[in-house]
TrEMBL record:
Keywords: Carbohydrate metabolism, Glucose metabolism, Metal-binding, Mitochondrion, Oxidoreductase, Potassium, Pyruvate, Thiamine pyrophosphate, Transit peptide
Top-rank taxon, per record: Eukaryota
GO MF assignments: metal ion binding; pyruvate dehydrogenase (acetyl-transferring) activity
Cofactors required: thiamine diphosphate
Major localisation: mitochondrion
Gene field: PDHB
Name used for this protein in its record: Pyruvate dehydrogenase E1 component subunit beta
One Pfam family, short name: Transketolase_C
Function as written in the Swiss-Prot or TrEMBL entry: The pyruvate dehydrogenase complex catalyzes the overall conversion of pyruvate to acetyl-CoA and CO2.
Length: 371
């Protein structure tokens, strides 16, 4: 009865529409222990804006943090991730570089060794191939080779994976490439909360982190909780998230394919199949414990990724499950859904058939469940 009365008061206290006493103040109701008057204030935020927030908050929090890369300053970033930051923090904190990935990645690694915390943006991770010696041989191995006396707190970030209509040299996933290398941490966000929380955690980490974003997700809005809007919100590196609970099959993905898995799960739910969807979030170190616990519950496993099949992220997950205790709970072989084993075609119809689609995931689940 008390809840109903409060609800009635709240409805009466709402301001009238514009032009009909719109200035009437909202009645403030007393707080009662154990009674929620409204849900937390979640808002819609694009992945682009979430990354921008994270950079802004970390530049403000720690004067050692700086951003460098091609067009990140005066142009506000090729994808507008760094929009407004140059005007706010100036030339010493947000730095435009020449088109020389090997050069500016090396400068960033040296700065990290000297005690700064650079965020090194690659306009796309395809271009990181020009700087892979700096990432693998300088950033990833220095702490180990110095017996822990020299840390390299650096973030390499930018768009990764399939784009749209840019063909083979600009549309490939590097998760398996960088996930292969000890000394690196590798994160791959899906939602806006992932993007903000993982970028802030990566900047604060004392190890080199590769952050693989999706160009196709930058403009996509996701709900961001009240907690995620906090300046101290971080997502621990190395911890996966169960995006949907299920009992019949485990779907594991990272980056954009997480959304495809959720769509496939919604389709399959109408046919009585309940999928548990795991957002991996981190490629290295991999949270295999969350995957194992899910497989023990569902007895089936399907991995989904945009990268190539051979030596891929899904192959690693399947191997770890086979080698661990969860293998005994599998009722069918694990199945991988991956990109096609070809360089990315330019033609749209071929491109679409080279990237995992929702129908491919549905087909793989039905094959696994023998339905």
């Amino acid at each position: 009865m008390a809840a109903a009365a409060l609800r009635h008061l709240a409805l009466r206290a709402r301001p009238a529409p514009h032009g009909r006493g719109a200035g009437t103040p909202l009645l403030r109701l007393p707080q009662r222990r154990g009674l929620r008057l409204s849900a937390p204030a979640a808002i819609q935020v694009t992945v682009r804006d979430a990354l921008n927030q994270a950079l802004d908050e970390e530049l403000e929090r720690d004067e050692r943090v700086f951003l460098l890369g091609e067009e990140v300053a005066q142009y506000d970033g090729a994808y507008k991730i760094s929009r407004g930051l140059w005007k706010k923090y100036g030339d010493k904190r947000v730095i435009d570089t020449p088109i020389s990935e090997m050069g500016f990645a090396g400068i960033a690694v040296g700065a990290a060794m000297a005690g700064l915390r650079p965020v090194c943006e690659f306009m796309t991770f395809n271009f990181s191939m020009q700087a892979i010696d700096q990432v693998i041989n300088s950033a990833a191995k220095t702490c180990y080779m110095s017996s822990g006396s020299i840390s390299v707190p650096i973030v390499f970030r930018g768009p990764n994976g399939a784009a749209a209509g840019v063909a083979a040299q600009h549309s490939q996933c590097f998760a398996a490439w960088y996930g292969h290398c000890p000394g690196l941490k590798v994160v791959s966000p899906w939602s806006s909360e992932d993007a903000k929380g993982l970028l802030k955690a990566s900047i604060r980490d004392d190890n080199p982190v590769v952050m693989l974003e999706s160009e196709l997700l930058y403009s996509v809005p996701f709900e961001m909780s009240e907690q995620a809007q906090s300046k101290e919100f971080i997502i621990p590196i190395g911890k996966a998230k169960i995006e949907r609970q299920g009992t019949h099959v485990t779907l594991v993905a990272h980056s954009r394919p997480v959304g495809h898995c959720l769509e496939a799960a919604a389709v399959l739910s109408k046919e009585g199949v309940e999928c548990e969807v795991i957002n991996l979030r981190t490629i290295r170190p991999m949270d295999i414990e969350t995957v194992e616990a899910s497989v023990v519950k569902t007895n089936h496993l399907v991995t989904v990724e945009g990268g190539w099949p051979q030596f891929g992220v899904g192959a690693e997950i399947c191997a770890r499950i086979m080698e661990g205790p969860a293998f005994n709970y599998l009722d069918a072989p694990a199945v991988r859904v991956t990109g096609a084993d070809v360089p990315m075609p330019y033609a749209k119809i071929l491109e679409d058939n080279s990237i995992p689609q929702v129908k491919d995931i549905v087909f793989a689940v039905k094959k696994t469940l023998n339905i």
